[in-house]
Amino acid sequence: MPDSRLWKGHDSEKAQNNPEVLAPKLIKAGHPDVYLAFQVGTKETAAMPPIEAFVKRSTKGPIHTKLSIIQGGEHNAKTYVPNMENAGLIQWISEHMQGPTPSS
Fold first, then answer.
1. Stated pTM of the model
2. Burial letters for 34-52: b for 16+ Cβ neighbours within 10 Å, e otherwise?
3. For residue 10, is pLDDT > 90?
4. Is omega for the bond preceding 49 within 30 degrees of 0, making it cis?
5. Extended strands (E) in 8-93
């Protein structure tokens, strides 16, 4: 979710980068396929409900999601980095990314 103060005065660009705005448009259009991986720690009590609600509401049509809830986790590298591998988030995203194309 674009929440930086640097978006001030750039409402159009902010909306173009807001998943709450983009998801309904993608679902209605039926394409392109988008893959989103989320992780949240159980100690992130303010963050968990909105993430779970977004995933529940938006995982349909071209939007594919994977949510990992980290038991006892907090919003920090100590919690998040090991979980990216342990929960398979990096592998899952990698399976859906396009490979690089050589330049001519």
1. 0.81
2. bebbebbbeebeeeeeebe
3. yes
4. no
5. 34-41, 63-70
